[in-house]
Amino acid sequence: MKLSCLLLLVFFAAARAQAPAPVVPDSAPTLRYIHAAWDVLTRSMTDCHSLVDVKVDANPVLYLPAEIPIPPEVAAARQKCHVKVLALPRRIEKLGDVMPQELPAPGLLYLPNPYVVPGGRFNEMYGWDSFFILLGLEADHKEALAKSIVDNFLFEVEHYGSVLNANRTYYLTRSQPPFLSSMIRAVYEDRLSFPATPAGRAEANAWLEHAYTVAEKDYTTWIRPEHLAGRTGLARYYDYSSGPVPEMADASPYYPDVIRSLVEHPTPVGNAFLIKGSEHPDAAEAARLKQTSCDVRASVVCLHAWYGGYRLTRDFYEGDRAMRESGFDTSDRFGPFSGATHHYAPVCLNSLLYQYERDLAHMAHLLGKPADAQRWDRRANARAEAMQRYLWRPREGIFADYDFYRAKSSDYAFITSFYPLWAGMATREEANRMEAKLSLFERPGGLATSNTDTGLQWDEPYGWAPTNWLAVAGLDALGFHADAVRIARHFDATVDAGFAADGTIREKYNVVTGNAQVKVSEGYTQNVIGFGWTNAVYLKFQQIAQESAIPAESASPPH
Fold first, then answer.
1. What is the mean pLDDT of the chain?
2. What is the residue extent of each domain of the chain?
3. pTM higher than 0.85, yes or no?
4. Which residue in the list 53, 357, 460, 507 is annotated as catalytic?
5. Is 329 among the catalytic positions?
């Protein structure tokens, strides 16, 4: 018996010795693509391509803030690009001061500096995409372009009321996950952002003073009454308009598809999003739908949002808009198609606001404003206490979104549970317990967004660069280096595999199969090429893998 075991051990050892070494993906082609992609994805008001919007069927229109004259480059673009240039009707102080439906046509909102777009159909500067893009630009030593993006966001806050979902008029009523303070710090703390001279240091300090003041204004967006999650002391996502979003005017079947799915797969929550309605309502029904659903007379998107005798409720549209502010469009995280997003205090948003408050406290210290620093510290501490009370689930050892309408925690596992690690809000014990939950999301090609396969793009089996980065950066900061390196290498290998197959970089990946083979069955079905945040996170993961002393064979996934 002992001899037989010995012979088997010798056999398996020989087999291992003869087995080929694991194939290490070639990153060189991917890196060449990324280095060249920044120029391809850069836009400015002097570039006619910047004005195009494939999401709406309309001729290009460029809007200027009401309070500024036409800049020379815009006057030149008006002739060169055949674009109509209009002024917004009045000065904007906050989101919702000017509603998109007031304007004669949808259009691009003027920004003074060059910026980087995600790619594909997303041909404008986005709120949260730009944080990750900025990290990639700095990793690729394009500090001036990174700074110009942040300067554009400061301009947005000053002239359009807040950091916007993106610089299009139909986004004047909502923001996106708040990363402005982190972007400001990334630029200020990069020694190459300003000249290494006394004058350069003075310029940097003056820039920080201005940026701090503007960031304070942007922060107020998230403490307006509409953005408060009941009496929890936490925030929620919220859009200041109603009805279906106007960017769906490109004849997208999204809303009819949602209705069809809700009808064919009934659930108690999904049923609550449906009301009876005709395809061609008369005047009396149109008046009723304006109160209970949306205005079929004012919105062609609303009119076409019908299937099988049903329409969507007003509450669904509120949740749908809030879901778009969250950036996670779409998943079943907050009910079917996240139609109840506005009913929740989410882990992601409140982690980001905690980081925002800590960032503002840090900036205040640097600027010699101790009273301000204490005020921001108090805000951050109060938010941390509320997050511990409502979002931490000690039995499960995980942070979870909180439904403040029904006073209960969500049991939907979602990758944003790791945001408190990135924000530095989680305790050491909580971090240890969270790290033990990695198996909920870790797949061969990186971290899946959830562990529920719904056919939607922000659920299993799909993984995205931003959420992979925030989880990995949080793990790395708390000393879980092996986890961070392993996930970074596996996600980058997935990107490499996708690039080897089709020569492009995508917005999302299938992390179960470890490639770009994405087949979304409901909602947004495209896998857009470009892609700004994937390019950026790939570079950051390369840094993590290269800086680590952990051999590739030691950073294998858990069994």
1. 93
2. 32-223, 246-344, 441-559
3. yes
4. 507
5. yes
